[in-house]
Specification:
The protein folds into 3 domains: 45 residues, no CATH class; 131 residues, no CATH class; 143 residues, Rossmann fold. Helices cover 33% and strands 15% of the residues. The chain has 10 helices and 12 strands. It has a 6-stranded mixed β-sheet. Strands 4-3-7-6 form a 4-stranded parallel β-sheet, covered by helices on one side. A two-stranded antiparallel ribbon has the order 5-8. Strand 11, helix 10 and strand 12 form a beta-alpha-beta unit. Helix 9 packs across helix 10. The two termini are 30 Å apart.
Amino acid sequence: MAGTLPNLNWKELPKYPKIFFYLCAKKKIFALYLISVLRKRILAITGKSINIKHSHLNIIQMKKESDGVYKPHFKDYISFFIGDIKICIKQLRYIHKLRFKRAKKRGVFYMVFEPFRGHPGLADRLKAIINTYNLAKSNGYDFKIYYTTPFKLSDYLTPNKDWECSIEELEYSLQDTKFFREISWRERTKLKPNKQYHCYYYCGNTMPRILPHTGYKWCDLFKELFTPSTNLVNAYKELNIPPRTYISVHIRFVNALEQFENTFFDNHLKEQSQRDALIQRCKNGIRSIIKENKETPIYVFSDSKVFLNSLGDLPVYTLDNSEIKHISSTSGDSSTLKTFLDLYVMSQSQTIYRFCAPELYSISHYALLAATIGDIPFYDLDV
């Protein structure tokens, strides 16, 4: 091993109340956290990513984190434990609804997107839907989705089976109602029979092409639930782009070049020279893809109008960018349709590239979602 292992810094331990450490010790989680600190130090010394060359392109094949199989580190379990406590507290809001009588509808799993709560991006929402549907289906449960705000999901993804429901269908029975939190680290594969499950809280952090424990293909489950709406299909037809005849490139700048959304990812580049340099690196990445695929049209997708408007000197195609907004902040029909249209167009391509750089939001699963829906090759390209 190169280098020496530094001493463990006990100051790195979280400053939580004594009751927290007591509970952690009872569940043997605190010991795992200590191990995680050591593991982090070892990886800091020896951990190196391995780039796989694809011709002259510097392409990183999908890692487990990016191909949808999220493997939490030891320290993540502390966060999960705290998160569980917070969710339990939030779910106290439903206590006053609980009744002693049996639920009339049992053997049903409800995925509920409450209108008064903030929700993440489209990819996380759809990942959570498919993950819970996978669980419901494998346990013989009917599956329902309540999703009406800020837009009605069925306006863009028409049900292939009867999954729409109203909020009035939810029943709160002390005997039959079970609350479920969708998160990968639990690895729950079984539901109690003849109950009514409600999922209000989710993470949507997994998207394996083949779902473990059931063997179902992710894209097949998606197609069982959804088909593109008439409006979405018509919008695609108007583009006159034959499917599987082009390559898609997706670059998620967030706020690097301009203010796009309010988010935890603070990556704004203050200097114009920095922004220009990032644009040039991304354009050079596109040039390398063009060089490898001279006969194939290239479509570029991004959340940055500044970048899309800079592509006039490259032989690539872009879609109309007048309605680019993040799905969590949009309320207009045109911007929501734009989000779904970009996703649909990418899913119909032959290959998708996601650009990665320290300044970019390289962990975005939007492009990966499109590749998984279309069951097509997906690559990360370092720029």
